[in-house]
Amino acid sequence: MKAMVMAAGIGTRLRPLTYAFPKPMLPVVNKPVIEHMLHLLERYGIREIVINLHYQPKVIKNYLKTGEQMGMEINYSYEERIKGTAGGVKRASKYFKETFIVVSGDGVTDIDLAKAIAFHKKRKALATIVLSPVDAKFPYGIVLTRANGLINRFIEKPKWGDVFHNWVNTGIYILEPEIFRFIPASLEFDFGHQLFPKLVKMGKGVYGYKASGYWCDIGDLHEYRRVHSDILEEKVGLRIPGEKLGRKIWVGKGTFIDKRAKLKGPLVIGEGCHIEKNTSLSEYTVLGNQSVVKKGARLRRCIVWDKAFIAKNVELRDCIIGLSANVQENISVFAGSVLNVSKRH
Q1: Least confident of 97-101, 130-134, 296-300
Q2: Got the DSSP string for 221-249?
Q3: Which of 83, 95, 107, 345 stands the most exposed, by the fewest C-beta atoms within 10 Å?
Q4: 188 and 83 in contact (C-beta within 8 Å)?
C-alpha cells in the first residue's frame, strides 16, 4: 500500500515556531514530527510515500531526501498554490492505482493502521475516515455514524446541544482511487468540509472507523506542549530517541552529564549534549541535540531545540527555546515564552 503525507500547510496558529520551519518539521522529542509519522507507516509495511509541499519545501526535502535512509521511497508533489487536502491528493493521483492511505504530516499517533485498513476493506468502502475521541472542549467537528460505521452526518463547530459523542476526524483516510472522480482538478478542495459531506449526501460508501490509541493534532502551541508531556508519560507508542536510564529519563549518544547534575524524569536529553555540575533538569523537559547547559542552570517543563547554549544560573520554566539559541547567564524565562526561533541553514 502507498501513502500520501500532507505537508503543505503554513501552520499560522503555531507562529512564531513556523516562521522558521514548516509545521511538519517542528521537533517532537528531538525528531521532526513528520519523521514520527513516517516511522508509523513503515511499522505497517507502508514504504512508498508521496509528500505534498508548499511552504518552505526545501526544508522538508533536504531532510528526508529520497527516503532511502529510512528504507522508504519518497516522491514529492509541489503545490505552487495550495490545493486543499483533497485537491493536493488529486494532484498526485498518478501514484495511486489501488487502495491507499492519507495521513497528516503534523499529527502524532499510534493508531493501529492495519485494523483501520481491514475495517475499510471488509465494508468495501469508497472512503474510511479514522476517528478518535477528544476531550469535552470540542475544537473539532464531530462525525456521526450508524452502528456499522456508515457516516450519516458531519457537525462542524458543534454546540452543546449537538454533542452526542466526541468522535472526531483525525485526518487519516483510507481511500479507493475511484475517489478522484469526485474531486475537481483545478479548484482548491477539502476532504472534511467539501468532499466527504458531498459523498455522504450522494449515498456513497463513506465510513468512520472508531480507533483506539493515541492521536493529537499539533495545531497550536498548547497542543505542541501537550504532545511532549504525553510522550514523556509514555501515553504514546512512539520511539523516544536515546537510551532509557532510570525512571523515564532518556539520554542520547555522546552526551556528557556531570555526576553533580540533578536529573528528574520524565526527561529527554539529546545526543552530544554537555551538562555541567549543579544543574537541574527536571520533569517534562526535552533538551535538543548538541546543547550545552552551564553550571547552576535550572530547566523545568521546557522544550529546547538543537544546539542551544544555556548559560550559568539561567532558569527556564514552561517555555520553548529555539534552534541555536544563546540564553545569557543569570536570566529567567517563564511560562508561555518562545525564544529565538531561528531559521535552519
Answers
A1: 130-134
A2: HHHHHHHHHHHHTT-S-----SEE-SSSE
A3: 345
A4: yes
